[in-house]
Amino acid sequence: FGERAEIDSDTIDQIEEMLISFDISYNVVNKIINELKKDINSKNVKTKEDIKKFIKDKIYGILKPREGKLNLKNKPSIILVVGVNGTGKTTTIAKLGYLLKKQNLEVLFSAGDTFRAAAIEQLEAWGNRIGITTIKQKQGSDPGGVVYDSINIAISKNYDVVIIDTAGRLHTKENLMEELKKIRRVIEKLTNREPDEILLVLDALTGHNAINQAKYFKEAINITGIILTKLDSTAKGGIIVSIADKFDIPIKFIGTGEKIEDLEPFDAHKFVDALFD
Amino acid sequence: VLSDRLRSILGKASRKGRLSVSDIDNVLSEIKVALIEADVNIKVVREFIEELKVDLVGREIASGLKPHEEVVRAVYEKLVEYLGGGGSDLVVSPSPPTVVMMVGLQGSGKTTTCAKLANFLKNSGRHPVLVACDVYRPAAIIQLKVLAETINVDFFHKDAPPPEIAKGGVLYAKERGRDFVILDTAGRLHMDEFMMQELVNIRDVVKPTEIVLVVDAMTGQEAANVAKVFKERVGLTGVILTKMDGDARGGAALSVRKVAGVPIKFVGVGEKVDHLERFHPDRVAGRIIG
Ligand SMILES: Nc1nc2c(ncn2[C@@H]2O[C@H](COP(=O)(O)OP(=O)(O)OP(=O)(O)O)[C@@H](O)[C@H]2O)c(=O)[nH]1
Ligand SMILES: Nc1nc2c(ncn2[C@@H]2O[C@H](COP(=O)(O)OP(=O)(O)OP(=O)(O)O)[C@@H](O)[C@H]2O)c(=O)[nH]1
Ligand SMILES: [Mg+2]
Ligand SMILES: [Mg+2]
């Protein structure tokens, strides 16, 4: 838009197009644009820089309250990792395990994806690379059984954290969501408490469907945190803004690549700056 | 739902005659919103709306139809037009084996789709070989090997750089009289220069008849950019949309079809190896409208 923001409908169109291109949902874009129009009319917003600052502040205002950290209060702390197919759960578990191990915690992996070809081997390969033991059973066995085993071992051998991998599943598949509820019940029966973290892994390239994913996973098993992966791509991950606006779910980490160190705490300020890079 | 929103704008009564200019202006913004919410890329939306406007100006409301029904019909037809065209069959090479190279972003469903395609070909009387060219992802080779064993299809891998593996796979196929070679490649970002060059290297060594972009149906705005870069850098001959068994509206299909200019050949509709269907533009059009 022009240097001296003669704020006309063309400018508004350009701003709308930019925000939509970030995958911020239409509802939220509309809300931001309407608030911008009000402020323009009240002469608070005069230049191109003003507009940029206004929008950044708005988005920051939505995201900042959702910044969250891992809550690992118990021993062993139980982290359950869930999400739809291919979002980066298994890789993210490896990254988390590595992070916690660097903090001198004893971490155990639980190969809860007993369905997909070579899912167990994939997690175990990561575990071997970073010196973390993976508890597993045969391919096709009941995930609840693996989880039960893993937690028992964690308790008896004094582990600090158990991170449980689950199979990718579309939130629309009732039987698979039931399976997740069952896994949660197994954890609760064995530990007499809720899992310390139930982390939903979302792919930054996803469009509006991410909102459904957050909604359905939250309703099924309650989500304590979100990890947004693949932010090293050209995707801006704007769906996280819509999710932050709609749901009270903390955003805890972002994935920034395929290597073991490519995990960062979610920082609202950094995220907003990156939107406009 | 778009149809309901249009009906409240245009009125419930059946009416004769043509759509007026004011009718059209009112509905175009609703249609634009519907397409954006379906994750169609904003630039593709703008182009679509421009062309749709031309179709709608003075359009006759078919007898017995309400005005909003006529508009929905026009949108649907235009979507089918954008999405369709181009055969959904794999092109067979005049000198076998036919090499099919599968490419795409991380986690889009390439490895699973390679197995589905092999299964599909096997059921059509063909003899495919699955070739594992992903040397990066832990257990990627095992994943493809296990899938190959599940459907009793030949599997090839060797400890070498991906272009060498591909070449070895084609040789393996020739020696055994296999007529299709399906290359599974590592997921990669379209802006990763090194990895995009790797695809070019594989392509130059085995000269695939088909280079297929595997796209996750829930992909948002970036689908257009991804398709564009893969098309320009490596070349594409087709697209497969995965995870269509979910509730993603699938607007990425429209973006990719328009930008890459190559046909969508198949859709993945589940995690099992037989969950592959031919692409039907009319079905996806209906889904995008919502
Ligand atoms: N570029 C990039 N790739 C990532 C990131 N996180 C994961 N990946 C890649 O995404 C692909 C899928 O990762 P997985 O960890 O297998 O995903 P998943 O959710 O466990 O997949 P399923 O178990 O099959 O549902 C792999 O190629 C990873 O290397 C990230 O932050 N950036
Ligand atoms: N529901 C559903 N899941 C699918 C479909 N296609 C693939 N998947 C799942 O998506 C996830 C990722 O599939 P992969 O085949 O590992 O994806 P990929 O593109 O090879 O991943 P990378 O090699 O890491 O880039 C797995 O959990 C698959 O089972 C589909 O059509 N429907
Ligand atoms: Mg996994
Ligand atoms: Mg793969």
Molecular structure report:
The complex is a heterodimer of chains A (277) and B (290). Helices cover 48% and strands 15% of the residues of chain A. Chain A has 10 helices and 8 strands. In chain A, helix 1 packs antiparallel against helix 2 (26-41) and helix 6 packs parallel to helix 7. Chain A is α/β, with parallel strands linked by helices and 277 residues long. Chain A has helices at residues 9-21, 26-41, 48-63, 89-102, 119-130, 143-156, 174-191, 209-221, 239-246, 268-275; strands at residues 77-82, 107-112, 133-135, 161-166, 197-203, 225-229, 251-255, 263-265. Chain A has an 8-stranded mixed β-sheet, with helices on both faces. By secondary structure, chain B is of the alpha/beta class. Chain B is built from 11 helices and 8 strands. Chain B has an 8-stranded mixed β-sheet with strand order 3-2-4-1-5-6-7-8, with helices on both faces. In chain B, helix 9 links the parallel strand 5 and strand 6 (238-242). The longest helix of chain B has 17 residues, at 21-37. The mean pLDDT of chain B is 95. The chains are: A alpha/beta (277), B alpha/beta (290). Chains A and B meet through helix 1, helix 5 and helix 8 of A and helix 2 and helix 6 of B. The complex binds guanosine-5'-triphosphate (2 copies) and magnesium ion (MG) (2 copies). One magnesium ion (MG) is lined by residues 110-111, 134, 140, 184, 187 of chain B.
List the helices and strands and how they pair.
The complex is a heterodimer of chains A (277) and B (290).
Chain A: H1 9-21, H2 26-41, H3 48-63, E1 77-82, H4 89-102, E2 107-112, H5 119-130, E3 133-135, H6 143-156, E4 161-166, H7 174-191, E5 197-203, H8 209-221, E6 225-229, H9 239-246, E7 251-255, E8 263-265, H10 268-275
Parallel strand pairs in A: 1-4, 1-5, 2-3, 2-4, 5-6, 6-7
Antiparallel strand pairs in A: 7-8
Helix pairs in contact in A: 1-2, 3-10, 4-5, 6-7
Chain B: H1 2-10, H2 21-37, H3 42-56, H4 67-83, E1 98-103, H5 110-123, E2 128-132, H6 140-150, E3 154-156, H7 162-175, E4 180-184, H8 193-206, E5 210-216, H9 223-233, E6 238-242, H10 251-260, E7 264-268, E8 276-278, H11 281-289
Parallel strand pairs in B: 1-4, 1-5, 2-3, 2-4, 5-6, 6-7
Antiparallel strand pairs in B: 7-8
The complex binds guanosine-5'-triphosphate (2 copies) and magnesium ion (MG) (2 copies).
